[in-house]
Every structure is written in C-alpha cells, then in structure tokens.
Amino acid sequence: NLAGFYVRAERFDKAEETYKKILEAAKDPWLKDWANGELLNIYQRQNRLDEVLPKYEESLQKNPNDIIQYRRLAELYARKGENEKVIGVYEKAVKVFPEDRNMNNRLVDLYEANNRFNEAAAQMENIIKTAPNETYLYERLASLYERAGNNEEAKKAWETAVAKAVNDPGIYSRYAEALYRWKDLDGALAQLKKAQAMDAGNLNYTMRSATMLIDSGRAEEAKAAFKKVSAEAREEWMKNEANRRLEEISKTEQPVVEAPKEGPTSAISETKPVEKEEKPKEAPKKRKGLFGR
Questions:
Q1: CB contact at 8 A, 141 and 178
Q2: Which range has the worst mean pLDDT, 94-103, 153-162, 229-238, 270-279?
C-alpha cells in the first residue's frame, strides 16, 4: 500500500498523513486498530511517543464513548513500558463498556501479566457473570486463584467446572493435576478414575495414576496400575513404558533374605588349649653356716 511504501522510503511525514486518513475513514474496528498501530510504529521509530501522548490523552477525554480511543491510548502507554497506566486505561474502559468481552479479557491478561492475581480473579468473576455456562472460564478462574495462593477458591472453581462438563474426561484429568499439586493424591486418583471410566480406551489416565502412585511411594498400587496398562494398552509404546516402569520397581524392591536353618551339631567340639599348670615354686633352702647343724 501507499503508506507502507512511504515507510520503507522513510518518508514518515507522508506515511503519517496517509495512515491518519485511513483512521478517519475506517468503519471497521480492526482497520482502525491496524492504522493506529502503524501510526505508533512511525512515532516510535522517530522517538516521538512522548510528543504525541498529550494528543492521545486529549482525544480520549473528548470521546469517552469511543472504544477505539481507549485501545489507542493503552497501546501508546504499552510502547512506553508504562504498564500501570495501560491497566488504568482498561479499568476505565470496562466501566464504560462492561459488556465488551475483549476489553474485559484484556484487563484479566494485564492483571495476570503484572502478577496481580487477586484482581485478575475478581475480573474473571465479572466475566463469568455474563457467561456462566462457559466451562473454560472456570478453569481460568481456578488457575488465577491458585497463582494467588488461594487453593480453596481454586478448588471451588474446579468443582464448578467439572459439574458443568460432566462428559469431558479431559477436565477431570486437569483437575486431578491440580489436586496432585496440592498434595491430595487420593483426590487426584479419584478424578483420574472418573476420566478413565468415561474414556475406557485411553489408558493415559491409568498410566498417570500409576506414575503418581510410584512417585508417592505407593509401589504396590502402582504395580497393579502398570500391569493393567501393560495388559490392555493398544499402543506398543505404552505397553513398553509400563513394562519398563514395572522392571524399575522390581529392581528397587529388596529381596527377602531367610534366616539360616539350624543344622546338626558338629561332632567336632571346640576345645580350648590346655594350659600348662605351673608348679609351685619351692621355698629357697637355708644355707648351713660353717657351724651349721
């Protein structure tokens, strides 16, 4: 296009003029966003972001009901690395456009990217109010609560998710992984068992159960699970992996050593060396003197 030609030729004044005309005439939001992004590219290459910032802020003040103005200003702040200001713009936008899903989703992403997990979870709760039957939203909510260190609320979100997706074995499997991270092995195994029951031909769930068991020191239960996979898996690689793990378990098991049986008493008895008896020493004889008797 003509504007792109001007950019490649580094005739930025002509490129800016062209993109502004496109921005003014565009009807579709995506085209407006594209033209605005190209304008910002020009300003950034010319180190003019600070120069044009007041115009963007003024444009939003004059047009508070134009959703494009929020995205333009937020994008400019983002290029300047001012993340908190980007968040501030989207916080204002969702108040003006509470039903706009893209704006709400973007705010969740921004909170999460900046480690503001509690706020991200609260924003996701707002989104769920407008779409209570979208199961994946509860999974996202659970993830946000977990990252915020609130496993209790994360578990509630997971429970709601599995209740809404009763025929999806994958969601039970993902919930199992969360429970395992929270040191709830039995809870994780229960969810994997449900997943396996729904998808009987897919022994990945049993394989994962076996791995969790062996990693938790429950070797006998793990052996039973690996044996099931070895016997029933259709895929050769899975059979081989199960057999390999069974072999590893057998190597780590300590063999039972029986105590030696008592045999007949040896006919040869141990004898102590005979100690020589010392003869009592004789008392020294008295020497007779010259006139001894």
A1: no
A2: 270-279
Rg of the chain taking only CA atoms, in angstroms: 41
Quote the tokens at residue 293.
């008797």
pLDDT band at 264 (very low <50, low <70, confident <90, very high): low
CA distances to 57, 59, 90, 164, 172 from 106, in Å: 20, 21, 8, 25, 28
The candidate with the shortest Cα–Cα distance to 161, out of 153, 169, 171, 170, is 171
Buried b (16+ CB within 10 A) or exposed e, 1-33: eebeebbeeeebeebbebbeebbeebeeeeebb
Q: Are 139 and 161 in contact (CB under 8 A)?
A: yes
Q: How far apart are CA 117 and CA 122, in angstroms?
A: 9
